Amino acid sequence: MHKLITRERRKIIAFLFLGETLLIPHLHPIVEAIVQEAPDVRVDIWTVTSTHERLIVGWLDELNINNTNVRIRRVPGFRTIPGLPLGNVPELPPKSITLLRLMPRLITASAIVCAEQTSLWIPTLLPFFRDRFVKTSHGVGSMSARDDRRRRAARLLLVPSETEKRTYTTRGIPEDRLIVTGYVKSAFRARESGSPVFASSKPVVVYAPHWQQHRSSWWGWGRELVALLAAQDRYNVILAPHQRLVEKDPEVREVLASVGDLPHVHVDLDSFAMVDGSYMAAAIERRSG
After folding, report:
1. Which of 13, 164, 230, 275 has a Cα-to-Cα distance from 207 of 20 to 30 A?
2. Which pTM does this prediction carry?
3. What is the pLDDT of residues 37-78, one digit of tens each?
4. What is the distance between the alpha carbons of residues 13 and 34, in angstroms, rounded to a whole number?
5. For residue 15, which of 27, 5, 6 has the smallest C-alpha distance?
6. Which residues, other chains included, contact 107 with Cβ-Cβ below 8 Å and sequence gap of 6+?
7. What is the per-residue burial (b if ≥16 Cβ within 10 Å, else e) of 160-178?
8. How distant, in Å, are the alpha carbons of 8, 74, 117, 168 from that of 157?
9. Residue (of 166, 180, 121) closest to 148 by Cα position
């Protein structure tokens, strides 16, 4: 990315927060690093809803950054959604229309960084943008759509490990277009909560089933597992499913509410801690402690 932002064009990096809020922790640590380490670079932070904007503005305020080069911008079609819990998925405007209307505003950017794959349609269809797009990984790679042609349109791919880098080089991606960064989300500073308060200091088990049926245990034996975790007393339990699971199975609220009052069970379906790494950190800390 350093090569991209030191060219003759104006030093502007555009960050695209156009996807679900769960993608924000995979991208925001890069924003903070640029803002703190390259204060002469102008950073345009494009947000798609008031939920995205509220989260990012709050985190930047906490850093006490007095930098006029950092701008929070609203994409064409920006949606205001008052009162939405931060853990809920805000309704996004149509992505294709948003990208079409946003493209002219990205022309002056030296680099354009995204965490979701849909934005890569821009460099895929318009070669003019191909030397500017940077795609950071969502997750650690196990479920990545590595063969999607849109990924080949990015100038740089930020990957979490040398192993993941090799999966791309074996697919013909040149090594100089791959940068190993580690797991970006692990550097996310603005976690909403620390460890949930339990009545005891037992080890913590986290159950966070995925929302897609072919990748999830929920439909096969999720209810049974919740019952087993509620009945045992060896572990404290955090039940914080993927934030989109409620869309696919509204009954998940009732199932989890039925055990949420137990002293060794913490249920979360609405806070940003569901996606910011708080609960995995709590489990790791309790295990290491």
Report:
1. 164
2. 0.85
3. 888 889 999 999 999 999 998 888 877 666 678 899 999 999
4. 9
5. 27
6. none
7. beeebbebbeeeebeeeeb
8. 22, 25, 11, 9
9. 121
